[in-house]
Amino acid sequence: MWKSSRQKMTQKALRFLHRFPRGHRLVVLGMAMRRRIREDAVTAWASKLTLYLLLSIFPFLIFLMELLKVTALQDPLITQELLGIFPMEVVAFVQYVLEDLQTSIRSSGGVLSVSILASLWAASRGIMVLVDCLNRTYRSVESRSYLFLRLLSLVYTLALVLLLLVVFTLVIFGNNLTQFILGHVSLPVKFEVLFGSLRFLVTLLFFWLFFLLLYATTPYRKAPLREVLPGAVFSTLGWFGASFAFSYYIRYSTTISYMYGSLGGLVLLMVWLYISSVTIIVGGTLNAAILEEKKEST
């Protein structure tokens, strides 16, 4: 009874929205998104992705930081920018674990290079699970071999490292340029704020490029860049917005510290990774829903 009444109301609303083509299309897209999120079990897959991201994130950071030591990018600002990816409440926990792991790697002596390569191999596992999630959103059946997927994950992990190195280079160059300008020219305070905003925009652009390449190249079904643009924009803005909201909530909530005590940092990291996983998968779902809507309208 209730289900049939709801269907009638939905049909009436859609008939009314036919007078406004753009509004009608957005509603249809929203309904397709809702259906796909339910059918694809997005929350369940996000939980799985969270586990593998948790297992991958520290090996990835270790590999990146060890790589930075053999480049000219040894700068305290780099560590600050790298840890700035995480919510403020998680930074202390991540920094503690990284320092502990780096101490263990240094004590290994001759097997340092092996440890770094093992870190890269472990970090690529998260990309593999992400490929599975995106294949599910496109309803694609994966036929590529395990070895190929493993190599693809390694290549994409290395590409992510290179993108980060480029961003860090731009950050250091921009910071040095800013200090030089401010040291020789007296500028109003608003210009200093502007320089800080430019650094944020560079980070935003990096994440947008990361998501764009992720959605375009990793799934079995290849897609042109213009087709995955909406999902990349959604994931970038959604990830930053969700991270900000999460930090705001944690800052004024003491529930987690009371409930989990010394494990609070780990729990916060897992919750943040889960939010990130949902955002990434929903971004892929948005691309798939738009593609489906275009096919139905032609």
Descriptive report:
The protein has one domain. The chain has helices spanning 2-17, 21-39, 42-69, 76-83, 88-107, 112-137, 146-184, 189-217, 225-251, 255-260, 264-297. The chain is mainly alpha-helical.
Q: What is the strand and helix layout of this fold?
A:
Elements: H1 2-17, H2 21-39, H3 42-69, H4 76-83, H5 88-107, H6 112-137, H7 146-184, H8 189-217, H9 225-251, H10 255-260, H11 264-297
Helix pairs in contact: 2-11, 3-6, 3-11, 5-11, 6-7, 6-11, 7-8, 8-9, 9-11
Round the Cα radius of gyration to an integer and report it: 22 Å
Count of extended strands: 0
Structural class of the secondary structure composition? Answer: mainly alpha
Which blocks of ≥5 consecutive residues have pLDDT under 50?
none
Helix content: over 70%
> What overall geometry do the principal axes of the alpha carbons give?
globular
**CA(first)-CA(last) distance:** 34 Å
